[in-house]
# Entry
Amino acid sequence: MACFLIEGGRKLEGEVYCKGAKNAVLPILAACVLCPDVTLTNVPELSDVSRSFKILEFLGCEIERDKDRAHIKTDGIKNLALGSDLTSKMRSSVIFLGSLLGRFKMSQASYPGGCELGARPIDMHLDAFRRLGADVKDMHGSIRCVCKESNLKGSSITLSFPSVGATENIILASVLANGETEIINPAREPEIEDLVSFLNRAGADISIESGSIHIKGVRSLKKVSYSIMPDRIEAATYMAFAAANEGNVLIRNCCPNHFESVTASFREMGCNVEIYKNSVYIRAPQRLKAIRVSTMPYPGFPTDAQSLIMAALLRAEGTSVIVENIFDSRFKVSEEFIKLGASLDIVGRAAIIKGVDEIYSADVSARDLRGGAALVAACLCARGKSCISGISHIDRGYENMEGNLRSIGASIERISKEQDEKG
# Structure
């Protein structure tokens, strides 16, 4: 089992380049089911992406990959039921239900897995499928969806919460349905726009308005080529690395307007942040200022960046407060921060962080994707050598994190646990 060995205390200086967005490429890979022939570029090398390709191969797709390019042909799809071996490690596997149902009028999948972030029920997804005319049954550990008539029928669907996954699943199921589907109170993340852009280029008829998404069903989609948008959370991650380590870093290949709430928070912390067309420059002071942050649906502060900004605030001057409004179990990384000497308390949905002068090395463990990245940020500024285990979580969302960090001055090495024990 691999871990990261990090020697803290080195300032970060230089340039990093963001890859394609994890949260955009996964739904687009599911959407490939709806198209006969797809070529994607700017595809990141992530374990979750590899799992999505395994799902497509199991379904019967032909796949050719070359670096960040992928060619997918779907004419051979014949398997419409996904077992737990394909879904248990990736939450977003649930969106294959929508694309398979939309094209083949039937889909089945075991309940999805992924990071343990508390209750994330898929009731909204399943209720939406029923509104579109599907019969949905719990098959003792898996979900089976079957169209009750010859095709799904458009419907007006109001989401009680702007769920990203539910919004994606409704779009995927509705693209080939009869009539028009309206999603009221949809998620508005840039990754939703990327999915819509991909589908429209393939021949779909989808429009996004201020409070709704309209999908006019079409008979079929066509061959398409598409480039995945840059990863805004990866950009926020490198901003957090720089902020925590008195860094001086230019982050290239990003869309700054996609994470304005994040850059605003780093400015409030005392960082100099300069925005360019496709890049962001951040210079951090010797000591950050304490701030208050509340996570909200887009365009508010993203929950995926919450633990990252917490890591940067561990040594800030004063007391910071972070309120988590999206998930009910996203403060697990706080237990690992305390091992490093951080001073923080969890009170309900709030984390109260009292900045300390120094944090110190320790053996810590990543328990989810973004919490793992936050541990990297903390260990980079901790005095001494730290070991982070559980980095398979980090590999789900970051391509070659250690190589990128070494290029800007960090001391970080991927080693096996056995290697670490031998000293």
User: Anything to note?
Assistant: Confidence is low (pLDDT under 50) at residues 114-120.
